[in-house]
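Quick check before the chapter quiz. The format below is the same one you will see on the exam, so make sure you can read both the input and the output lines.
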Amino acid sequence: MTGRTLPEHALPSWRRAVLKVGSNLLAADGGGLTTRYAQALAAFIAASHRAGREVVLVSSGAVAAGRALLRERAALGPELAARQALAALGQAPMIALWQSLSERPVAQVLLTHDDLRNRRRYLNARATLRELLMLGVLPVVNENDTVAVDELKLGDNDNLAAIVAALVDADLLLIASDVDALYNTDPRRDPAAEPIGHVPQLTPAVIAMAGGSGTGVGTGGMRTKLQAAEKAAAAGIPTALFSGREAVTVQTLEEGHLRGTLIDVAGSRMQARKYWLRHAPAGSGRISVDAGAVRALAGGRASLLPGGILDVVGEFHRGDLVEIVDVNDRPVARGLCQYGAAEVRRLMGRHSRDIASVLGYSYGAEIVHRDDLATLIGAETAGESEA
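Here is the expected output.
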């Protein structure tokens, strides 16, 4: 792909991004891990931090690092079990590499798709990542390959990065690899292949341009990157594909420009999330709120706090989508509840500061956080709903 002129254009405005770094950027030619390409990426993360932005890093490389540590040994056993053992062995050096390059403390977060499919664990993972970002820590997320059988077979940290982007409400997904852009044909086989700078919308024709994995070190290819971009787009998050091997390309990111491919989304991130909250199937549980809570929620920027709750109808669990209604049972909002029905009944009418003393623990001051809430009425109709 060397010698081709890559399109350059402005990155979307962002405050929080997920950066995925592929194995091919971290694995040395002779085995083990190298900082050769990671240094420029770490410098970009540091520059982003200094600009007041937040970055969550999704890093591959654990299996490659583990393999290098045992390269003198014979196979450890069945292929999957061996790769899982190598992943466990390689986690420590992979985290150590990023800590050696980071100006901030680094925290390891291991996830599986099961963690993110289960609503309770999903909320716990999100709360942990948000707290780490608030503390000024660089979270380094990786697939928990030691136990994630299906995910390890797919080798798909690209898709994990997209899920994490939605998990933390990121504004942008950045995918750094040894591929510098999406091409209209396979650039490894076609010298006339042309890079595509901007994809307004992922279509079957665009996805058909993708090939498989390029080398034996990484396990993802352009197809998984487009699958990840499709997941991110569904959450209203654009994706930038670029080469992490080109220092100038990485430095250009600091200036707000991308040399690579930008995969756009229709509408904003908030529009996509709010649409889902408004239309996704909700359980049978309802939370009734007072007039003050109705007015606050109608503004679209408030969370539901326990003090404004009058009643809880039906049963639901932490992480379930619930209806929020006024005293006349008219819909006010819908949202993902951070507490189960039994817990909300104990907390209703209380102050947020009392949550820990009442329950003996706390998942946060909000019953439904504003990021997980979609209002169904406007401020101008809030008074009518209360009448």
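If your answer matched, good. Residues 8-269 form a domain with the Carbamate kinase fold (CATH 3.40.1160.10).
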